[in-house]
Design goal:
GO molecular function, one term: lyase activity
Number of helices: 13
Pfam families: MR_MLE_C, MR_MLE_N
Radius of gyration: 20 Å
InterPro entries: DgoD-like (IPR034593), Enolase-like_C_sf (IPR036849), Enolase-like_N (IPR029017), Enolase_C-like (IPR029065), Mandelate_racemase_C (IPR013342), Mandelate_racemase_N_dom (IPR013341)
Number of domains: 2
Largest sheet: 9 strands, mixed
CATH topology of the largest domain: TIM Barrel
Structural class: alpha/beta
Order of helices and strands: EEEHEHHHHEHEHEHEHEHEHEHEHEE
Distance between the termini: 20 Å
CATH architecture of the largest domain: Alpha-Beta Barrel
CATH superfamily of the largest domain: Enolase-like C-terminal domain
Keywords: Lyase
Strand content: 15-25%
Number of strands: 14
CATH class of the largest domain: Alpha Beta
Protein name: L-alanine-DL-glutamate epimerase
């Protein structure tokens, strides 16, 4: 039956942090998030999260996009089916995004709104999002510790292991000599059964990426993530794949069903990592997840943000099944931890999927209110 939306609440947040989170392309000096809530004419509601990590001013901008560029396309409008909202907003905002060239922000807003819409649909059906997508969804998903700066690996990997993780991902792409030395030392400190991956965050050109691979041939990386820019020429990616002794991973900066179809058929990636907050939301990434699994590749959703997006990513992975891991950023983030994604358990290596309707989130935690920087409420 059609879903008619009557209310939108969208808020931007920024949580201060003591230690900046560094990547090869920039440094986060606080933890931002944008949370959105949709409500329909029957009072059913759903929550979503919009990507806000970059640029530095992105959170408040995304929140205003929802209020000023999407409200007229949502309030009092009706949508049908799982992809109804995603398809409609993608079509109706095409010229707006083209006019300003802000493809990323528009895609990210649509992604967060789609997640909220699917949460609403699952809540109306009185099932979890995971079971709404797949009645045979897994009851829990394995997690890996991400966001570990290579310079802090010697302390952060043991701390993550103590929290229950046995798979870890370090950030490289800073100084080649230092990266290789520290990565080698990190392997020396692993325990039996541990897995270690590396993420370059698009830092290198082909020559630098191949040099890194040549210098780490004795290190059994679980995968090397984004060694090249997502838009690097396909021949460069294919040549690097032939030279690589480890699986290549990517996907957080790929968009569109066509983009993922090309990635699946490229014979480059062993691991694909769509991000529900950057493109596609739950409905778009559910289609991609199924295609990845059907192709025999590994589906490991990317996520680095607040609690809503992390929980939604867990539901998506549970629905998709397979041998994927849920990415869990181990850097401090009150906007994630306030949602208690692991419930009252202290171990972080496995996340159980709540059987509550939707994503199991009935309201925003009180503790996030002090971090709010912008709020917009739109009603019919």
């Amino acid at each position: 039956m059609p879903i008619t939306l009557t209310r939108i609440d969208v808020s931007a947040y920024r949580a201060p942090i003591d230690t900046p989170v560094a990547t090869s392309f920039g440094v986060m000096t606080n933890r931002p998030a944008v949370f959105v809530r949709l409500e329909d004419s029957d009072g059913a509601f759903g929550f979503g999260e919009i990507f806000a990590n970059w640029p530095a001013a992105g959170a408040e901008h995304r929140a205003r996009l929802v209020a000023e560029d999407f409200a007229d396309l949502l309030i009092s409008q009706s949508f049908n089916g799982l992809t109804g909202l995603f398809d409609t907003l993608t079509r109706k905002t095409h010229i707006r995004a083209l006019q300003c060239g802000e493809w990323g922000p528009f895609r990210q807003v649509i992604a967060g709104l789609d997640t909220a819409y699917v949460d609403l649909l699952a809540r109306r059906a009185d099932v979890s999002v995971a079971r709404f997508l797949n009645p045979d969804a897994a009851p829990e998903v394995p997690c890996y510790a991400s966001g570990i700066a290579i310079a802090q690996a010697a302390t952060e990997i043991p701390a993550s292991r103590a929290a229950g993780f046995s798979a870890f991902k370090v950030k490289v792409g800073f100084d080649a000599d230092r990266d290789v030395a520290l990565l080698s030392a990190a392997f020396d400190g692993l325990k039996e059964g541990d897995t270690l991956c590396a993420d370059a965050n698009q830092a290198w050109d082909f020559s630098a990426a191949k040099d890194f691979l040549d210098r780490t041939t004795d290190l059994p990386l679980g995968w090397l993530e984004e060694p090249l820019p997502a838009d690097a020429p396909l021949p460069d990616w294919q040549a690097l794949r032939k030279a690589a002794h480890v699986p290549l991973a990517g996907g957080e900066n790929i968009t569109g069903l066509g983009g993922f179809s090309d990635a699946i058929g490229s014979d480059v990636f062993s691991v694909l990592q769509p991000d529900i907050a950057k493109w596609g939301g739950l409905s778009g990434c559910w289609q991609v997840a199924q295609a990845i699994r059907q192709s025999g590749l590994r589906f490991c959703p990317h996520f680095l943000g607040g609690g809503i997006g992390l929980i939604a990513s867990a539901h998506l992975l549970a629905a998709a099944g397979g041998d994927g891991f849920l990415e869990v950023d181990v850097n401090p983030n009150p906007l994630r931890d306030a949602f208690a994604p692991w419930g009252d358990t202290e171990t972080r290596g496995v996340m159980k999927i709540s059987a509550a309707p939707g994503l199991g989130i009935s309201e925003l935690p009180d503790s996030v209110a002090s971090y709010q920087t912008a709020n917009h409420t739109l009603v019919r």
